[in-house]
Write a structure and sequence with these properties.
Layout (H helix, E strand, L loop, with lengths): L4 E6 L2 E6 L10 H16 L5 E6 L3 E3 L4 H10 L5 H22 L4 E5 L2 E3 L1 H8 L2 E5 L3 E3 L13 H9 L1 H9 L4 E2 H7 L4 E3 L4 H13 L3 H15 L3 H16 L2 H11 L10
Parallel strand pairs: 2-3, 3-5, 4-6, 5-7, 6-8, 7-10
Antiparallel strand pairs: 1-2, 8-9
Helix pairs in contact: 1-3, 3-4, 4-5, 5-6, 9-10
Bound molecules: ligand T3D.
Amino acid sequence: MTDVVLCDITDGVAMITLNRPAAMNALDLETVTGLRITVEAVAADDTVRAVVLTGSGRGFCAGQDLKEHVAMLESLPAGDVPGAFAKHVATHYAPIALALATMPKPVIAAVNGIAAGAGASLAFACDYRLASDVAGFNLAFAAIGLSADTGATWTLPRLVGRAKALELLLMPATVGAGEALSLGLVNRVVPAAALAAQAAALAGQLAGGPTVAYGAIKQAVAYSAVNSLADALAFEGEMMARTGGTEDHRGAAGAFVRKEQPTFHAH
Ligand code: T3D
């Protein structure tokens, strides 16, 4: 953990907070490195059963730190810039998106404010977006002559459809929380003052749930998005076999029959 990326783990919930409020939590090298290490650590930690990603101050995350970025552009020979981009994206942004989207536990983006560029992509890579009523999303890449990264070209069309995704990417503008909700960009909008408590409550609920089943659901939904129905049916069968063999399933099915509340454990 560093000062710019905080991580608190309590009762099975990892709360990751981007902590550069003066820069709208923009991702300089220290922050993006800290975020990658933190996200990969909570993904691998079996005691963590739900994750929340949020930002401090009035921003969620403004994407790449453009001040540091301009310094990089000015310090490198022009011919070295494409290679530097490719390395930076492959070393940091891509692994973070992949870890958020594929870790075998639910990940909530508690979007407290503006999410721009790769900051928006981070929120889209999470499993659930709980947004403050002052939050907003801006696919800012094209405004500075860039394409898009951190998975936005994969996640965004799946959230809002191809036509809207292209509109948001080609003509970047800030989409407020209300519009984001109607587009399906976020799951729920809550008053700003209630966001932290609501995110903690939701994460606590998920951390007390059937973690193996949640992980298998994430895997199956991702698999089905890019495979045929026949293959998806076969994969569902594999995931059902995995979850059907858990104590969580045995206990919860029995609890239903006994008219009791089930309790779930990590394995
Ligand atoms: O190397 C690579 O791999 C490149 C990868 C790129 C991936 C990307 O993320 S590209 C997209 C980068 N992000 C942006 O283009 C967004 C830039 N920011 C904005 O458009 C606006 O700041 C916001 C829409 C996010 C918020 O607007 P507003 O009016 O609410 O706030 P503001 O006044 O613009 O910003 C507040 C402060 O945050 C300000 O600080 P200052 O100058 O007063 O001391 C501003 O400079 C700073 N800030 C905001 N965004 C960034 C930033 N500082 C550095 N980098 C930023 N991205």
